[in-house]
Amino acid sequence: MAGEQRTVEPGTDVLIRKVDSHLAALRTGLHGPELELAERLARCLRELVRCTAQASAADRGQVRVAVHYFVLRRESRGRLLSVRSLTAAERVVDRVARQLGRPDLLADPRRDRPTSDNAQPLNNVLLT
């Protein structure tokens, strides 16, 4: 029995599993518009992971950052850490999609208009 050859980069499956696992966890606690946003973000991230599997390391790195930003929502511990909202993750995912020339993968297609923050490097966004 011949095995099917796959041309997927090693980290691709891991990133998609992280997105899917986080989405499954979110489904237990979110409802309505928040759940719809989480579903859209997961769909966009999965496609960004797939479409950059053979891309440059820099492009794959941007997508990896967006996945981690979505998946690793910090939990609030008193005043020390704030909880990242899904809206903040949406801004990061949309910024990565624009930088990679994929406006079709914006979580909110209505946002497909030039913004002043396009010039800001992604690493500066993650510090906020």
Q: List SSEs in N-to-C order.
A: HHHHH
Unreliable residue stretches: 114-120, 124-128
Task: Tell me, briefly, the overall form.
Answer: globular
N- to C-terminal distance: 52 Å
Number of helices: 5
Q: Strand pairing plus helix content: what structural class?
A: mainly alpha
Beta-strand segment tally:
0
- Strand content is under 5%
User: Kindly state the mean pLDDT as a whole number?
Assistant: 78
The amount of helix comes to: 55-70%
Descriptive overview:
With 128 residues, the chain is mostly helical. Helix content is 58%, strand content 0%. It has five helices and no strands. Helix 1 runs antiparallel to helix 2, helix 1 packs parallel to helix 3 and helix 2 packs parallel to helix 4. The longest helix is centred in the first third of the chain and has 20 residues. It is globular, with a radius of gyration of 15 Å.
Give a short summary of the structure.
About 60% of the residues lie in helices and about 0% in strands. With about 130 residues, the protein is an all-alpha fold.
Topology, element by element:
Blueprint lengths: L9 H20 L2 H20 L5 H15 L14 H14 L22 H5 L2
